[in-house]
Amino acid sequence: MTISGFADWLETPQGRYVLDWELARHDQIVADIFGFNAIQLGLPQLDYLRANRMPFRFSSDDRADVSPVAVRATPLQLPFATNSIDLVVLPHALEFEDNPHQVLREVERVLVPEGSVVVTGFNPFSLWGARRRLARRTLPPPWRGQYISVPRLKDWFALLGFETRAGAFGCYAPPARQEKWLRRWDFMERAGDRWWPFAGGVYVLQAIKRVHGMRLIMPTWTDRKARARALVAPVTQKKADSQ
What we know:
The chain is an alpha/beta fold and 243 residues long. Helix content is 36%, strand content 19%. A 7-stranded mixed β-sheet has the order 3-2-1-4-5-7-6, with helices on both faces. Strand 4, helix 3 and strand 5 (111-122) form a beta-alpha-beta unit. The chain has one domain (6-242): Rossmann fold, CATH 3.40.50.
């Protein structure tokens, strides 16, 4: 599977409806996650880390022109040391990977103890999920992705030692193509949060890497900052060399 074309779909009224909700929820979640290094895997044209205040923020594509530093990376093989990243955001990255569980394994490897991962995905148990089941395989994104349910994602988190921390569902309106119809269904946003909160078309879920039985002794602020700079230096150099 491929995420090719998904960014173009996000420019449509249907896609913008989803994107506006996702960015707003990411702003709420990542603003209160602290550390030194954060990376966004997927959709490098957009900045899901815009509300985060970490000094070093990366995007996993060297063509990106947004605020995070751009690096060449794939979700299955990240160019970062073990226990070196404080935050990883995965906007729809799992849905277009053949082995999404392995992606989470790689995320677990690079995250520091108590580091966070934030996953965005389409909810298969929603009107959007029903639309995907009726779609032909030849249709463009977002209907080609493999939708991963929140219960399944929580099971994967638990197997990898993550603890689910926060999350939200949104986009309760039917997946109409035209903006006027999306506006007419606007009342479902308020009703959905109250009456059927688990039926939103998309979700955002945060989990924290726990290391049981280990006492976490954090280095001093100066030491951590020095390590963070050491991490970002070779990445920035590679970017400069490629230009």
